[in-house]
TrEMBL record:
This is Quinone oxidoreductase. Keywords: NADP, Oxidoreductase. PROSITE patterns: QOR_ZETA_CRYSTAL (PS01162). Residues 11-322 form the Enoyl reductase (ER) domain. One of its GO terms (molecular function) is NADPH binding. InterPro entries: ADH-like_C (IPR013149), ADH-like_N (IPR013154), ER (IPR020843), GroES-like_sf (IPR011032), NAD(P)-bd_dom_sf (IPR036291), QOR-like (IPR047618), Quin_OxRdtase/zeta-crystal_CS (IPR002364). CDD domains: QOR2. One of its GO terms (cellular component) is cytosol.
């Protein structure tokens, strides 16, 4: 017997239930992974609340790290005993063990722990595609990243700094400003007392930035657009404050022929060759020390509901993991 977090209806964190289940043998193309650590991500709250609808009842969680215990027929990507990590569907990472398509797994280098693997995959691969594929940051660029003290934010700050960029980041408090600054954010803006769009224009001498990475959504979208220089790119990769309302696309022309994209990690890693290449680049910057992971919160897996409460209350910084 094993345990997993599941939910039978959408709603507040209390819908998350700690349930017993009997693990099935891996099907063809699957591997069974015994988790040593599981990642907590804001997208998990979207599934729980129904913002991103999923069939119910459902498991939850998209990221974990552990050891392969068994493989199904035809599996060549991993073998029993391999240390592995993953980010992506199907849902079900909040579990002591699970079966998952083997082509979604990547082997963890010996230099990276299970906790690091669980904390880094979804957020780290997100940082990779944002900085290296959606808008390829160049030395001398000045970028804006919202939620700079969050999990993705801290990784983006460090990685962008290593690439030679100047980093502007929004945060909710002086404490978070200090954390962001310590991780490469040159200009933390405390949005609770400063108008970030005005500060960005001041910092850039009125020019604006070539790219804004925005995971906040409704509360920041229009002001984020106003931070961009002509031909700038608005990268809307989340909606922590709610989805962006419909707007007139003509605004993009009026504000300087701006580009707008709404990317998802799952599109970028849909092909295994892309997943493996992106993970290799992520592992390299972490092992080299250019990017360090900050696991600032650890919860027992069975306490996932409390972890969600703290995440939504913005009480967390850096990465959070759940321990089976």
């Amino acid at each position: 017997m094993s345990h997993a977090i599941r939910f039978h209806s959408t709603g507040a964190p209390d819908v998350l239930q700690w349930e017993v289940f009997e693990p099935a043998a891996p099907a063809a193309g699957e591997a069974r992974v015994r988790h040593h650590a599981v990642g907590l991500n804001y997208i998990d709250t979207y599934h729980r609340t129904g913002l991103y609808p999923v069939p119910l009842p459902s498991g939850i969680g998209l990221e974990g790290a552990g050891v392969v215990e068994a493989v199904g027929a035809g599996v060549t990507e991993v073998a029993v005993g391999d240390r592995v990590a993953y980010a992506g569907g199907p849902l079900g990472a909040y579990a002591e063990m699970r079966n998952i398509p083997a082509d979604r797994l990547v082997k963890l280098p010996d230099a990276i722990s299970f906790e690091q693997g669980a904390a880094m995959m979804l957020q780290g691969l997100t940082a990779q595609y944002l900085l290296r594929r959606t808008y390829r940051v160049q030395p001398g660029d000045t970028i804006l990243i919202h939620a700079a003290a969050g999990g993705v934010g801290l990784l983006v700050c460090q990685w962008a700094k290593a690439l030679g960029a100047t980093v502007i980041g929004t945060v909710g408090s002086d404490e978070k400003a200090a954390i962001a600054r310590a991780h490469g954010c040159d200009h933390p803006i405390v949005y609770t007392r400063e108008k970030f769009a005005e500060r960005v224009r001041e910092i850039t001498a009125g020019e604006g930035v070539p790219v804004v990475y925005d995971s906040i959504g409704a509360d920041t979208f229009m002001d984020s657009l106003s931070c961009l220089r002509p031909l700038g790119m608005m990268v809307l990769f989340g909606a922590a404050s709610g989805p962006v309302a419909p707007f007139d696309c003509g605004l993009l022309a009026k504000m300087g022929s701006l580009f707008l994209t709404r990317p998802t990690l799952f599109t970028y890693i849909a092909k295994r060759t892309d997943l493996v290449a992106m993970a290799a680049e992520l592992f390299e910057v972490v092992v080299s020390g250019k990017v360090r992971l900050e696991i600032n919160q650890r919860y027992a897996l069975k306490d996932a509901a409390q972890a969600h409460r703290d995440l939504e209350a913005r009480k967390t910084t850096g990465s959070t993991i759940l321990l089976p």
